Amino acid sequence: MPCACGHACLCPVSLPQLLDFDWRVDVKTSASNFSRLAMPTCLLQLQVQDLPTQVTQVPNVRHVNVEFSRETLDTMLDGLGKIRDQLSSVAAKTSGAES
Q1: Reduced to 3 states, what is the DSSP secondary structure of residue 93?
Q2: Backbone angles phi, psi at 6, to 5 degrees
Q3: pTM of the entire predicted model
Q4: Rounded distance, CA 28 to CA 42, Å?
Q5: d(CA 43, CA 47)
Q6: CA-to-CA distance for 74 and 60, rounded, in angstroms?
Q7: How far apart are CA 62 and CA 53, in angstroms?
Q8: What residues form DSSP beta bridges with 41?
Q9: pLDDT of residue 1
Q10: Neighbour count for residue 53 (Cβ, 10 Å)
């Protein structure tokens, strides 16, 4: 993330940190739309921790629940794969520059 001067820095960013996650596949057994009656979905629970705004503050931990259809999950996994590839590329360039 760029700092106020526009350069990347190692200063902490106040974004939530992922602590843990849990998931399960669920099949809808009833719905108002008959075509969705047997639609499998992925239920994902993320445990995230907010960074404290003060040194003496205990970080807030919360749970975020998300439900994905197969199509939405495929789209998300494709996006995460692209992020992984880009991080690997940047890491390879960074380690090559240090050698």
Answers
A1: helix
A2: 95, -5
A3: 0.65
A4: 11
A5: 13
A6: 31
A7: 16
A8: 26
A9: 47
A10: 9
